[in-house]
């Protein structure tokens, strides 16, 4: 399995085909997930920022809302494209031994991303930052100046960069495995 570890977060981003070609519903599920990933800077960062460390121009309170909204959209995609109970014979995928069963279905990957990456980050930072933003921060400052005063800013941004790097890796894997057009790489 392809395990990616970044900072405090670790996720198995492996998934496999259930036959020679993907079913159309698999591709549709992949495209819907890719669309949510590729269009949310809060989730994968700016497309030209390969390190996922550029937070310029973002109001963190709004970006946290977008990240939380992505969580809900990912749930909808899981409901729309359920994991079947098809048994898959163990094999190697890209030189990596994959297990049998549903743990490698795209829906299971979405679940792991939510459980192992997004939820821990949101549980750690969303309420704390929002409380500070709404109750403690200096509301007389412009938003960009105001958010710089968050006492735990460096830790939050560091972990958020890790989340973005993992979610970007999932996005890139979707493009590769499902042969999707990577709209983030199209010239303007």
From TrEMBL:
What protein name is recorded for this chain? Uncharacterized protein
Q: Which organism encodes this protein?
A: Gallionella capsiferriformans (strain ES-2) (Gallionella ferruginea capsiferriformans (strain ES-2))
């Amino acid at each position: 399995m392809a395990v990616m570890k970044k900072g405090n977060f670790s996720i198995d981003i492996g998934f496999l085909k259930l036959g020679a070609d993907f079913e159309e519903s698999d591709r549709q599920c992949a495209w819907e997930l890719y669309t949510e990933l590729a269009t949310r800077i809060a989730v994968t960062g700016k497309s030209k920022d390969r390190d996922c460390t550029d937070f310029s121009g973002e109001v963190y309170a709004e970006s946290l809302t977008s990240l939380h909204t992505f969580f809900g959209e990912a749930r909808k995609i899981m409901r729309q494209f359920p994991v079947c109970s098809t048994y898959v014979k163990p094999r190697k995928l890209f030189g990596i031994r994959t297990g049998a069963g549903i743990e490698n279905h795209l829906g299971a990957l979405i679940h792991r991303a939510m459980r192992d990456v997004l939820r821990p980050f949101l549980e750690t930072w969303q309420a704390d930052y929002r409380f500070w933003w709404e109750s403690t921060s200096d509301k007389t400052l412009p938003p960009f100046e105001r958010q710089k005063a968050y006492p735990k800013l460096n830790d939050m941004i560091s972990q958020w960069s890790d989340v973005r790097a993992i979610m970007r890796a999932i996005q890139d894997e979707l493009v590769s495995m499902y042969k999707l057009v990577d709209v983030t790489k199209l010239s303007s």
